[in-house]
Amino acid sequence: MSQIQLTPAERREQRANAHHLDPVVLVGGDGLTPAVKKEIDAALNAHGLIKVRVFGDDRAARELMYQELAAELNAAPIQHIGKLLVLWRPQPVKERAVDEDRKPGPRDVKVLKYSKRAGQRPEVKQLRVLGNQRLTPGGQVKRAKKPRLTSVKKRQAD
After folding, report:
1. Which residue has the higher pLDDT, 64 or 144?
2. How far is Cα 86 from Cα 77, in angstroms, rounded to an integer?
3. Taking a C-beta distance cutoff of 8 angstroms, is the pair 83, 55 a contact?
4. Which helix (H) or strand (E) holds 115?
5. Among 100, 94, 75, CA closest to 25
6. Domain-by-domain residue ranges, the chain?
7. Contact between residue 135 and residue 111 where contact means Cβ atoms under 8 Å apart
8. Fewest CB atoms less than 10 Å from the CB: which of 23, 60, 67, 76?
């Protein structure tokens, strides 16, 4: 496989995105073992943009490692600064199974409660509303109403 080529503007943007990241994979004294390559590949699949810390002191060996990783893992070399290597590869699209029976999950809602006295700021409450709950106009959380069950006799009559 060959490495991904980026324009200087794209590389600059990826460098800026990687600035706050911590190293995900640490390469020890044994160098690039198959296990380390597998872990870097898994991290690229999970995160897309990763930092790798190499504990070797030889700069030429780190540069060689950097180019080898980019070529073997089909990644774009973003930055090699000191003992840190930054690699990027677009994340694969994850297929999600659509479950039609699935209910909505919890959601966080802000509720404003206005004071009866003029000039007071409204009280802001952060509430978590679960899938089986609803929010009333007064800001109360209530359980959602279940559909009313009809008797067997009434269902047969319809």
Report:
1. 64
2. 6
3. yes
4. none
5. 75
6. 8-88, 103-142
7. yes
8. 60
Four-way CATH pick for 8-88: 3.90.79.10, 3.30.110.60, 1.20.970.10, 3.40.190.10: 3.30.110.60
Tens-place pLDDT, residues 129-138: 887 888 888 7
Give the residue ranges of DSSP H helices in the chain.
8-18, 34-47, 59-72, 152-157
Residue with more model confidence, 54 or 150: 54
43 or 122, higher pLDDT: 43
How does pLDDT run across 84-102, given as a tens digit for each residue? 999 999 988 877 777 777 7
- Cα diameter, the chain: 86
- Evaluated on CA atoms 29, 31, 34, 38, the torsion sign reads positive
Strands (E), the chain: 25-27, 49-54, 76-81, 84-88, 107-113, 123-129, 133-135, 141-143
In the block, which residue shows the tokens 């380390």? 36
Decide: pTM greater than 0.85: no
Rounded to the nearest 10°, the torsion over CA 42, 44, 48, 50 is 120
